[in-house]
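Follow-up to my earlier ticket, as requested here are the two runs.
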Amino acid sequence: MKSVRFSIFSGVAVAACLAIVLLVIDYTNRSRIERAAIDTLSQISIPLLEQGNPTLLFGQLDAGIDLRSPSMSFITQYLPLIELDSWVGSIEVPSFYAEGTPQARLSARAHYSRGVADVRAALVYRDGRWLIREYEVIQGPSAQ
């Protein structure tokens, strides 16, 4: 009788440990994918906001997306870029046991010496990388 109880208890303990390990792996994977979204946007946005260079942006476009180059004519009046705020918004990464494609909608404010601009982006995660679906830079008020 004791060996049956011990076997049941051991089986439940092993199953619980496996469940915990899977949850930790899932959490770690989702966190890594979320960080990659922010890293991707920062790598694309800094050259664009500092120099008006959209090369990296167009290299990260999702298939079939026809994105116009953001109007960056204002940056010559606003430069230099002082700081890009942290990206805020939603990043949805489904668990490994759920269906769905990871997606993100993020925004940040760029602070220049003579004004500000807001950046808004929508991304989708495909084939191990984040791809841009929407991207816009909105000129804010200039400093007086």
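Run two:
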Amino acid sequence: MSGPDRVSVPGQGQALDYLGGKLVSELIGPDCAVEWNGVDGKVTGTIKKVTDFTAFSAKEKDGHFFPIDLAEAYEGLPITVDNGNGKPKTEKDRHWTLRVENIKGDRVTFSTGGETIATLDLSGATLEGADG
């Protein structure tokens, strides 16, 4: 399987039930997409600035959030997400929302059982309202 068979960006009208029903369109612009080269994806488009997103975290409620769904083949498997901060997170979940500010070096890798599912490079995305 290649990247687009393994990982997808939820549709604009989709509600993220696991995050209080927040709509994908509240997190990313309609231009947001992933360009694939095998299992390496480059994120392009707008990631919106969100404030008071307490369904994500009481401490990290402000920032830029990027939703991603892993293929059904990964349902129930332990998925490790490594965002380069030295603290990989493992959960049995295929629906993830990443807080972009927590990613070091603009890259995040999803893996299971020693296999890389996909690596996303967020350096091509535009962070709405970001300084710089």
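The only thing I checked on run two: The chain has a mean pLDDT of 93. Let me know what else you need.
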